[in-house]
Specification:
Length: about 325
């Protein structure tokens, strides 16, 4: 149940707020009646060991009011029940996501990716991910005769196509390694003026290959792999030369990586989603770094905590993509 602003302020002023307000329930403040003056308790809000939610009278404007800043996520009255229920289903991952986004505001790209990988690794050893993994059916082997990427060069332009169309370009280890190798070459070669990335088949990328989740021997090893084979890092290094064309499903890694690029175009059939919190994880392909730089911390938190899908028009309005075209792209 949402607290009134006065009741919330009383709780936050307590010297025991950090102990009293932690847990699996979100801290929800109803601000639909008008502006909330948090003042000196803003610092406490930013450190609470629970997800903090402000209920606003409508969607956030482009320039959100100052009182919103300390909260993790802002929702409307119609959204609050679904959002808090999602937090309740995955309380550990939800809190980790909120805390990661809080500290990420002060970090550069490398430190942000390091923090994301560290949190992701911790959650891989947690009960929520173990529960999700145990409930999944056994992974299926996907035959891949062709390379996971198609890379071509025409003068100063490099064209990269994700090439696992039968599984909607699910982002697996082979695709990751091939993409890292390609981007490292681009970064080292100043004669490359432009990199164009798109996807074969009905979708740009349906996210991480779920059949590979939990396949490394332990979370520490997985962290080392992420930090030494990070397509997010290399994309960030050549972001000013990179454009991405999105279509169909752009889920998890499919939007987390794309959001680093200077220019992102989507077809009007594109849709976007961050489903990882429901798995007991946080976005792990750089999304807690790339998305806040495009759409802000609150909208990133809403996408990840709710797991909701947004369409191309919403992505354009938020700044997640730069343009929307009406012509579906099916390579």
């Amino acid at each position: 149940m949402a607290l009134t602003p006065d009741a919330a302020l009383d709780l936050l002023r307590s010297p025991f707020a950090l102990e009293d307000l932690g847990g699996s329930e979100a801290f929800v403040v109803d601000a639909t009646g008008g502006t909330v003056e948090l003042g000196a308790v803003a610092a406490t809000l930013r450190t609470l060991p629970c997800v903090t939610v402000a209920v606003a009278p409508g969607p956030l404007p482009e320039r959100a009011p100052a009182w919103v800043a300390p909260f993790d996520v802002v929702v409307t009255e119609d959204e609050v029940d679904d959002l808090t229920a999602a937090v309740r289903r995955s309380p550990v991952a939800s809190l980790a996501l909120a805390q990661l986004l809080r500290v990420g505001e002060a970090l550069d790209v490398w430190r942000g990716l390091f923090a994301e990988s560290t949190v992701y690794s911790m959650l891989q050893a947690g009960p929520e991910f173990a529960r999700w993994l145990a409930a999944r059916p056994a992974g299926r082997a996907h035959s891949q005769v062709e390379p996971a990427l198609i890379v071509s060069r025409d003068g100063a332009r490099v064209h990269v196509t994700l090439n696992r169309p039968t599984v909607h370009n699910a982002f697996g280890a082979a695709m990751r390694d091939e993409l890292v190798a390609t981007l490292r070459t681009v970064v080292a070669d100043p004669s490359v003026a432009e990199v164009r990335v798109d996807g074969a088949g009905p979708s740009f990328c349906s996210g991480g290959d779920l059949d590979e989740f939990g396949s490394l021997p332990d979370p520490a090893t997985a962290h080392l792999v992420r930090m030494t084979r990070s397509p997010a890092w290399w994309l960030a290094q050549c972001a000013g030369r990179t454009s991405v064309a999105l279509h169909g499903a752009c889920i998890g890694a499919g939007i987390e990586l794309a959001a680093f690029a200077r220019d992102v175009t989507a077809t009007d059939d594109a849709h976007f989603q961050l489903p990882e919190v429901a798995f007991g994880l946080v976005p792990g392909a750089g999304g807690t770094v790339s998305l806040p730089r495009r759409i802000g911390r609150h909208r990133t938190a809403w996408l990840a905590l709710s797991g909701r899908r947004i369409d191309a028009a919403t992505a354009l309005a938020w700044g997640l993509v730069d343009r929307v075209s009406g012509r579906p792209h099916h390579r």
